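Assemble and predict.
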Amino acid sequence: MSLLGADYRRDMGVHNYPVLVYALTPLAALVLQAWLPRLVRGYTWFDLPLVVTVYFALARRNPIQGTLMGAGMGLFEDALTHHAIGVNGIAKTVAGFLAGSVGVRIDVENHTIRTMVTFLLSLLSSVIYFSIYRVLLGLNLEWSWLTELMKAIMNALIATVLFPLLDRTRVGD
Amino acid sequence: MESFFVRYRNLLVLLAILLAQIIGLAMQVRHTDTGRNTLDPQDAPGVRLLRLWADMVVTPPERAFHASRLGLVSSWQDYIDLRHTREQNQDLQKTIDRLRLEQASLLEDAKQGERLQALMDFQQKYIYKTQAAQAIGSSGSDSSRVFYIDKGADYKLERDMAVITPDGIVGKVRDVFPHSAQVLAINDQTSGAGVILMTTRIRGILRGNAAGRPQIVGILKDDRIQPGEKVLTAGGDQIFPRGLPVGVAEKVVTDPDRDGFIDVIVTPAAHLNRLDEVLVITSTEPRFPAEQQQDMATSEMLKGGQAAAIAEAIKEQKKASEVMAERLPGLTDPNAPPQTPAAGTAPGSAQPGQSATPAAAVPPPAPKLLHAQHPDRFTVGTGLPQSAQTSAPGDQDKKPAPKAGLKPEPKAGLKPASKPEAKTGQKTNPPPAHAEGKTQP
């Protein structure tokens, strides 16, 4: 992981994407997240909205955009569940914020860094989700850290594949 | 103040969003009487609105995905099925083709088996020795109507041997090779076979014409020859045995070369263009089948047995005659000398130097009648002159055998002593003609 100076980071250009990519990629992530578990028979060991959130947060190097995207994606996910709306929102908001904040400080062009960031943020998102559920809301929730670990690994793998594909949609590279 | 928001705007935005969500969560959680928190089963209007929006956003794509998936899966499954179906179809088609080939092969084998069976039956029943052969090739030219068979010198085939089928004659062996032979068909222009029309008994020479059809040439014009008459081999060509079917007279045409002569176009009995199996007559020595040979042996044995039976019957007849002669003393002369083998033969029948007639052929002795005690004109031997009566030469020496209680008595008018009586009796009863006939060859 190569750390960069703040001036250098600001000098680096922010990647831009077509509007359709901005609009359709999160939408596709949400839809696939809701649709793919039907195909994999319940093995929902991935979190596509989180991966997309991390990607755009890293690519845009903007914590606010990462926060907003994370919040929107999280709320959307919550809206599709029967759980309280806002738990995923908070977790992904934090993850998006951190991704956007880290993207300012690290070389986000490195696939390994992005994969590691995705892995860590997945675990953090799970921790936040669990914390909110159990601590903030005081609700009972069965939890399996192995599942969350597997989910983090799977998200990292998905990021390994998905990020280069999304990189090809950049504008002005 | 403005610089604070600008400097910490990221955190402020984060906190604001988090705070909003926490407030939202707080609004969704209800504290129960048991002191435990729980989610409100009935969503608040705002929460429901969010869920509705999310559903509106996600559902169409999901439906599209689902439909696409169904279509994709359906297409994929259909493709898989079609692919399997196509493979199965190809396999079945191959199987059908293979079965068709096998069926055709079996059918051909069956036909060949039938032909061979007919050929074998004919070969077994045919009086001459034959060798079955397969037609394996032809000359490939219409001007040379020869074909090749798969038997040659190795099967002792020779030139000019007749080649036939159960239907009729085919041709003759023109050339013999070590393992094959060339057969000249009867429809070749250079062939020749002596034939005869079955009904009219008109003979001619059969050979092929330019069209490859056999015809009988060199026949004087005869109105009796009609289409449909059967043509047989005449047997005069020293190749084809006589009596083999050649074909049927199809039509009669005038010989273009010679006036007063006609040619008879013959439809060959054998399928000359579709020959598969033929028989080569390898020997014209009559060869009787085992059944016929057995019949012949049985016939010979019966002949011998019949002769023996006849001899035995004659012997039995003689024995019966002797027994009868012993039991009838009035009919036999006890003083007569024993019969000699030549006694029964007619005079002059035994030629000098010839052996005597066997005892079995000796006729039984003629019975002798007793002399009548009161002869009248109806008495035998008194009404007819002796010269008009015949007697067997051997019987002249015979005397009636005496019998107890039946002593012969001489009568008046008759010659005394026994000899004249016996002569009288002999005159009245000549020996049976059939007995004489048997003794005189």
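Chain A touches chain B at residues 27-28, 30-32, 34-35, 39, 63-64, 67-68, 71, 74-76, 78-80, 83-87, 89-90, 93-94, 97, 100-101, 132, 136-139 (CB under 8 Å).
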